[in-house]
Amino acid sequence: MMNVLAFAGLSLLLLVIPIIAFLIKIYSGKSMNNPKYPPVLGTVFHQLLYFNRLYDHQTETARKHSTFRLLAPGQSQIYTTDLQNIEHVLKTNFDKYAKGKYNQDVFGDLFGTGIFAVDGDKWRQQRKVASFEFSTRVLRDFSCTVFRRSAIKLVRKVEEYSQANQVFDMQDLLMRSSLESIFKVGFGVDLNCIEGEGLGSSKEESMMFMKAFDDSNELTYWRYVDPFWTLKRYFNIGSEASLRKSIKIIHDFVHKLITAKRKQLDSDVKSEKEDILSRFIRESKKDPKTMTDEYLRDIILNFVLAGKDSSANTLSWFFYMLYKNPLVGEKLDREIEEAFGNLKEKASSSVEDCIASITDDEVLQKMHYLHATLTETLRLYPAVPVDGRCAEIDDVLPDGFKVKKGDGVYYMSYAMGRMPYIWGDDAEEFRPERWLKDGIFTPESPFKFTAFHAGPRICLGKDFAYRQMKIVSIALLHFFRFKLSDDSKKVTYRTMFSLHISGGLHLTAVSRRNLSECTNVNAKHIISRIWI
Fold this sequence. Notes:
alpha+beta, 15 strands, three-stranded antiparallel β-sheet, 532 residues
């Protein structure tokens, strides 16, 4: 009996000691009662209690404390909506802040050494190559062509659902369309996620990749609130086993793409391939030991995160907000018709002719209200709801609070969009007019509107994303009216790095005209016409 009790006591001791050690690591050395540091409102693990509504919980907290702390093992995580703090971290003292080891440990398995996960020379190198690519007129013209082709496919697909009076998931459709576009523009590869087969992949493989990518996004974010994730990863159990399986699907898919792309470039030496992947592959030949296929893979995955999620998520919330705000939709309808102007008669002849007339100079630049509506959507539903940096040295923020070396400083874009002290008493209202002055779109400071980050790491693809969203939204709104399939179902987000609608956005579509009267042409004919 004594042996049993001794064994039980020893087992309990072995369990308690690590817990005590873990708590000491969280609470020790954090200057918890020092008013010179931000107020402590718990630990990062307390976020488990609010995980499914985390960004709304952060909003409620930010109304009381514009800057606060959550304790983590080894450091504090500081959250802020203070605009001066954000400019301080992202621009004024840029060199004092980095991604940090804590963040890199969390998302390193998924994003590796891609542009969003690294600092220093690797970041500068990727930024330089990508910056050159995004600045070329060739990419602008090529991307518009790709976006118009995707818009044609979307219109045709939605028309199928409309004629069948069928409910469909708009978010899923937009995700597939955006994935196609980023792979074509960024990597010169046809995925054809909506229909058909593309270079080196089938529709089924593309869908597996997209699901694995989204699941990995969510499971990786879960690590921020799971105190046992490193242990689970070591034993390959639970959420970490699921994450490892999803990441393997992602890596296998991307390595197949890189292999196919290398073969394509080697067999077509006279052709100048100007997509981002081709440019990075050429760079890799200068330094093959550093720029391995694994390095190229990480670069691709970071661009997929930026190119797929930002546009598709924003458009999903955009269509939801139009349903919730029908007067905004009516104003957009009028602007679309006015923007087409003399092109209207030509545009009515076929889907292809209509979408081909959506050009930068003739249509997109006239649509200030559309630009304002998309921006207002991003204000309330930013593609990345929380982002930030890690202090490389001890520092003092403009609001007077101290930061210790190793502490994270995060700005809460989702919460910021709902703060009256930033946007006024109507901060929670969806009001595109706040962006217009005499009918002309007027931007705000990037440290106030942080949807595209700010400072030296501001998003390179901002204009790219707006062009894509405008072309797709114009095409869909010109041909259809949309309605939620179930008014009683609450629409909310999925807590992850990017702001997906949880469970999708299920709509029905009513055609504004009889699209079946439009000329039916085969896929090759469509592509040949829009690529000219």
